[in-house]
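task queued by scheduler; priority normal; single chain, no ligands, no partner chains; default sampling; output format set to C-alpha cells
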Amino acid sequence: SNNGILNDLKGQNKILSHDLIGIIRPVEDRIDEQIKAIEKKKADEKAAKEREKQEQMAAWAKKAQEILSYTDRLVNPKGIVDVQNIIKEVGAIEVNESLFGAYCLIAEQNKSKILEQADTVLERLMDKLKQEQEDEKRKYKEATGKYKDYFHKDPPRDDTIDKILLAIEKDRQERLDKLAELEKQEQKKEEM
C-alpha cells in the first residue's frame, strides 16, 4: 500500500532530519560562538579605541589647561624679571596639533590670555618702579635741601637719604646737648 510506504518514508525522513539536526546544530552552535566571539572582540576593540581617544582628549585638555597655571605666578610675581621670564616661557610654548590635538584653539587662547595678563602685570610693576624711583629722587632732593639749609653746604655725594637725615639729626642733638650743658653751667654761675 502506498500509504504504508509514504508513512515509512515520512518516518525515515523524521529520523534523518532529526539526525541531520543533531549533526548541524553543534556546527551551528560553534559558528554562533565564533560569530559572538568576533563581535565581542570588535566591540572590545571599539571600546578600547574609544577609551584611548578619551584619554588622549583628556591629556590634550590638561596640557591646554596647564598653560593657565602661570596665572598663579602672575598673582604674586617676585619682580619684573620673574614676569619677563614668564613672558619668555609662555611665548616659547609651541601650540600645535601633535601637542594639543583638538585643544589647539583653547591652548592658543590660554597662551594669549596669559601673555596679556603678564603684559599688564609687567606694565604695572614698571609703573610702580618708576613711581618708587621718582619718590626716591624727591626724598633725596628734600633731604639734600634740608642738609644744605642746615649745614650751608652740599652733602657728600655717596650719602643715602637716611645718612643725610641722620647727619642732620645727629648734629641737632649735639647742639641741643651743648646748649643744655651751657645752660647748666650758667645756672651754676648764677648760684655762686
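post-processing summary
- The radius of gyration is 48 Å.
- The mean pLDDT is 92.
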